[in-house]
Specification:
Pyruvate-ferredoxin Oxidoreductase, domain 3, 34% helix, alpha/beta, single chain, 8 strands, eight-stranded mixed sheet
Length: 193
C-alpha cells in the first residue's frame, strides 16, 4: 500500500492517517457514484469518510468531480485543497485538476482518454477503462473498472469490501460489475516516469 499522508498529533496523541482523493471526469462517466461507493466501502471498513460532489450545469458531458476524504480519525475538515491521489477519467478532468495534485501525489488515469499529463506525480497508474467497459458492452461500467484499478494500485480500502459495496449498489448488474472490477484489478499498470 502506498504511503498515506499523515497529519499532526491530535489532542488524543494519535497520529491521523488521512487520504485526500479527487476523482475527475465528465458527467455520465459515474465519477460521483464511484466516489460514493469508495466512501461507503471505507466506512464499512471502520474508517471515516466524507465525499463532496461537484459538477457543471450540464446534465451529461459537463465536468464532474468527487472529492473523497478517508481517515482513521473523525474528519474535522472535509475539504480537499491538494489531493494525495487524482483519478482522471478524462483529459478535461486532467486539465482542470492536474495542477491541484500534491507534489508527491499519485495519479490514476484512463489511458485511452488522458494523453497529456498536466502534473508531476510520484507515481502514475494507467488503465484503458473505457475500452474495457466497451468490450463488456456497457461503457457506463468504466467507473467500476477504475475502482478495481484504484484498489489494486493504492490498496486504501479492502478489495472484498469494495466489491461487496459495488454489488449492493447495483444488485441487478452484479455479474457485469464483478467482471468490470476484476478486469480493472488485472489490467492496471504503473507507468514509469
Amino acid at each position: 500500500m502506498p504511503r498515506a499522508r499523515t497529519g499532526s498529533f491530535q489532542e488524543s496523541g494519535v497520529v491521523e492517517v488521512r487520504w485526500d482523493i479527487r476523482w475527475a471526469g465528465f458527467g455520465g462517466q459515474g465519477v460521483i457514484r464511484a466516489g460514493e461507493i469508495l466512501g461507503r466501502a471505507a466506512v464499512k471498513q471502520g474508517l471515516d469518510s466524507a465525499m463532496r460532489p461537484m459538477y457543471g450545469p450540464e446534465k451529461t458531458g459537463g465536468w464532474s468531480r468527487a472529492d473523497i476524504v478517508i481517515s482513521d480519525q473523525p474528519i474535522i475538515f472535509p475539504l480537499i485543497v491538494r489531493p494525495d491521489i487524482l483519478v482522471a477519467m478524462s483529459q478535461d478532468g486532467m486539465n482542470r485538476d492536474g495542477s491541484s495534485l500534491k507534489k508527491d501525489g499519485m495519479l490514476l488515469i484512463d489511458g485511452e482518454l488522458v494523453k497529456d499529463i498536466k502534473c508531476y506525480p510520484s507515481k502514475i497508474y494507467s488503465i484503458d477503462a473505457t475500452s474495457i467497459a466497451d468490450s463488456l458492452g456497457r461503457r457506463i461500467v468504466a467507473n467500476i473498472v477504475m475502482l478495481g484499478a484504484f484498489v489494486k494500485a493504492f490498496g486504501i480500502v479492502n478489495e472484498d469490501i469494495l466489491l461487496q459495496t459495488i454489488i449492493e449498489t447495483f444488485p441487478r448488474a452484479a455479474e457485469l460489475n464483478k467482471t468490470a472490477f476484476r478486469l480493472g484489478m488485472e489490467n492496471v499498470k504503473e507507468v514509469k516516469i
